[in-house]
């Protein structure tokens, strides 16, 4: 889950954000024996048995198998991967769009598990837990003063749906300890970060990944915004690394007319499978803008390509990642899995947007998007290398290109904030959320009953948080000077305060006012 702040869902760590690595995939294949019966593959079985029974030292042959599988996958393409059991369980949960827990976003502040914010309508919120509360014990397990890693914290708070846990809480605002019993429940992991109106008639929806629930979340958001008067749509797919291909197709279906081609795939036997838009979608009329950047990949590119190639909308931003391979998952009995590339996908005009890769050079492949800093592509559209041989035409005669990502119709340079990319990326990191939590924690009562309008007015009138943030960076070993970027720092700090106080939509409502891509759209 991509966080422009310090929000950490209870059982999901940042390491699970594997969208670009995993990419789009199809339903799981049936259980398959990894080692088929032929002489060369039996050789591997015999070798592992030989090591297991005769090697002079005790050795874990499971680890040998894992190394062998990893080595084998590296001979293929960058998106054919082996996922060990621990990562597979987390990823499956992440992509399912829900988890079982107590429902809090937390931050390990000093030696205590501090609640940033209870999840709305979750068990903790219903039981009366508040932002700023410290969880000292889960049943009899001590959680403070031990510097526990996140996985230990997760396991202490996780459990079966309906199971009961007694939490011992220290409530700083009241200076007292309290015990609260609650029952764990299913907590949704939203893939739609925000849904709001930029103008009275223009809707904005931010999708962070394509999980099992994404189409349903999108549909609910569109319906609500249409009822509020929205007749045009901005769909933000920036930094969305992909996920379930069928979810991206389902959203494209809502935007395209019946019978329009959404995407097609080809396997190694050149078998082609085409997917068309079906019955009337929920947003077939009205302007559509898709926002992409160098980290938009896979399912995001399927959706953007379908809209661009059908002349349905305008793609705004920078060239996307360039991932045009489809994986199928095969699960193993130990909980691990392999995701194997089984096909290439093509946009409706016939474009393959898969960028080149060389076997055995995965690091260079995934760092290619970063290298666009050096080529100048993130700042000038003319720096994008386009091959005439990969030129295609849309039904209305617009020129589009294949060969490495979706090239936007309207280019918007990296919002480098006066040339300091380090500050720009820092302001989208978790450290901002940590700082804001600590500032709020000093005196939460000062924000009690403050309306959003009053909050904005107060934040606009002071720079004290910018000054404190620079001190905070220095104390945490980040000697980064804010310098002439004070305006952007203040904007992101204000947005993060709004998120922790009022909710996700308020975070985006503040940031989008100065967003370069949004400004470009509003000028159209």
Structural account:
The chain is an alpha+beta fold. It is 34% helix and 22% strand. Strand 8 and strand 9 form a beta hairpin. Keywords: Hydrolase, Membrane, Protease, Serine protease, Transmembrane, Transmembrane helix. GO terms for molecular function: endopeptidase activity; serine-type peptidase activity.
What's the structural blueprint in terms of helices and strands?
Layout: H1 19-22, E1 24-26, H2 39-54, H3 61-73, E2 81-83, H4 85-96, E3 98-101, E4 104-109, E5 112-118, H5 123-127, E6 134-138, E7 141-142, H6 150-157, E8 164-171, E9 176-183, E10 185-188, E11 192-199, E12 202-207, H7 214-227, E13 232-236, H8 245-255, E14 261-266, E15 272-276, E16 288-292, H9 299-309, E17 314-317, E18 325-331, E19 337-346, H10 362-366, H11 368-375, E20 391-393, E21 399-401, E22 410-411, H12 421-426, H13 430-442, H14 452-460, H15 464-475, H16 486-502, H17 504-511, H18 516-522
Parallel strand pairs: 1-18, 12-13, 13-16, 16-17, 17-22
Antiparallel strand pairs: 2-19, 3-10, 4-5, 5-6, 6-7, 6-8, 8-9, 11-12, 14-15, 14-19, 18-19, 20-21
